[in-house]
Structure formats: structure tokens, C-alpha cells
Write a structure and sequence with these properties.
It is a single chain. It contains 1 helix and 2 strands, in the order αββ. By secondary structure, the chain is of the alpha+beta class. The radius of gyration is 21 Å and the shape is elongated.
């Protein structure tokens, strides 16, 4: 493809590529910049840190200590 697009086929390819890129950006979570596919990186022991908005089932449960 040439730049700037000179044919309707080039323009169509450019628009399709822009739409695909936009869809990929929209698919990413918007709640945090550090969240990538539900993970926030690694801790000091190289264990993955889950994003609790994406993976709430991985939150540690508090024990009821009121006894």
C-alpha cells in the first residue's frame, strides 16, 4: 500500500486496519493502565499479581476472627 492512499482499495485497507486497531484497544480493560489480560505484573517473588477487577475469584478471603 502506498501513502497517501491513491485508490479506493488502499483507502479501504487503511480504514480496515484502523478499525481493527481501534477494536483491539477497546477490548483492553479501561480500569487500569497496568492491567494486561487480567494481570498487574509480578511481585518480588516473580509470582503474577492478579487484577481483582478482572479476576475477583482470586481475591484472598478474609477469615472471620470474631470468635
Amino acid at each position: 500500500m502506498t501513502w497517501p492512499p491513491v485508490s479506493s482499495e488502499d483507502t479501504r485497507e487503511q480504514r480496515a486496519a484502523e478499525a481493527e486497531e481501534s477494536a483491539a484497544l477497546d477490548a483492553r480493560p479501561r480500569h487500569g493502565r497496568d492491567c494486561v489480560d487480567g494481570w498487574l505484573g509480578d511481585d518480588e517473588h516473580d509470582r503474577p499479581i492478579p487484577c481483582l477487577e478482572c479476576r475477583p475469584h482470586l481475591a484472598r478471603r478474609r477469615r472471620d476472627v470474631s470468635t
